[in-house]
Design a protein that fits this description.
Largest sheet: 6 strands, mixed, barrel
Structural class: alpha+beta
Distance between the termini: 47 Å
Order of helices and strands: HHHEEHHEEEEHEHEEHHHEEEEEHE
Helix content: 25-40%
Strand order of the largest sheet: 4-14-11-13-12-15
Mean pLDDT: 86
Shape: globular
Amino acid sequence: MLTIKKAGERREQEANKLLPGAAGLLMLALIISCRVATPAQILESEPLVIQDDFDRESVSRAVQHSMDYFAKIPGDRVIAERPRKITAREARESLVSFLEVMNLWDEPGKLAQAIRSRFDIVPSAVEQAERDILVTGYYRPVIDGSLTPTGPYRFPIYRKPDDLVESPGGKPVPYFSRREIDVLGRLRGKGYEIAWVKDPVELFFLHIQGSGVIRLENGRTLQVNFAASNGRPYTSIGKILVDEGRLTAEEVSAARLRGYLRERPEERERLLTKNQRYVFFRFVESGPLGSLEIPLTPGRSVAADPGYFPAGALAFLVSRRPVLDDAGNLAGWRQFSRFVLSQDAGAAIRGPRRLDLYFGSGDEAGGPAGFMNSRGRLYFLLRKKTGVE
């Protein structure tokens, strides 16, 4: 999935960058949730060091997307009850205040001081024991495809079926399973196909990511984004292979799973259909779009459970990210910290101790996203009600 070109000084430069990488509902790292890199107690240091390892432009862009979201909802709407009650107005005012201190970006010490004076830095959980979170990664794959079922392009990407219904709570009523759709052909010939691809494994990973780019033979690209799901549970095939003793937890990565599925086509149907969840797509002009229907920003947007993390809000993330070698293999881990925004959600990203970091599009994003699986801490930045201005 990834080839990182590094040499000499370039190798160190690239190792210190989080390569961009796509939206989602079902995240690639969820396939490999059985493998977790747990760093030493690097997250327990006090006081918290506020230092951003990424670029100014990306955080400005991500903040603006969240402000666009808040402009469309009532200010008194409660967007979170945890870690404390937060309204849309409070979250938006926090973003405005953050933009005001961005002129200090090139002076990290002064920026950190301004953040501490203007904002309450609120841990993601009240209880100390619940503050460690698992941070994984997702991205937007680029897949060869066709708008007609010709030659090798035999595997359909479906739009949302007309007879898929949602409950009053907005959740889909359980629909056909992956086996019923892909093996038994329950949707075949009903006109729901929007494109076709030639690789069923890549199609499966597209479902995991929730969005992607379809590259046509004439070079044109089309963006597809999550439209709906079949309302059935997600199952990790990585965990299945570990439980069956076919892979060790240390072996599991997105690239390893791809290889396993291609090397053993006789097992492919059994494994893929274990994951009953199925995703339906739509074409979008620009994307990827997260659950808030705003564009995601590589390295800045995160997916989280909106029941525990205020949607659209500004936060500060501390964790470790993978460092890859020339062949795209995991070579080590490097601590990082940065401002992020909660702009997406995922069916398998549930509870107060899960977070998924969006890496961007293509193979250069897919490599690190596939390995990203580490402990971290998240702190929300909320403007002080009686803060120093």
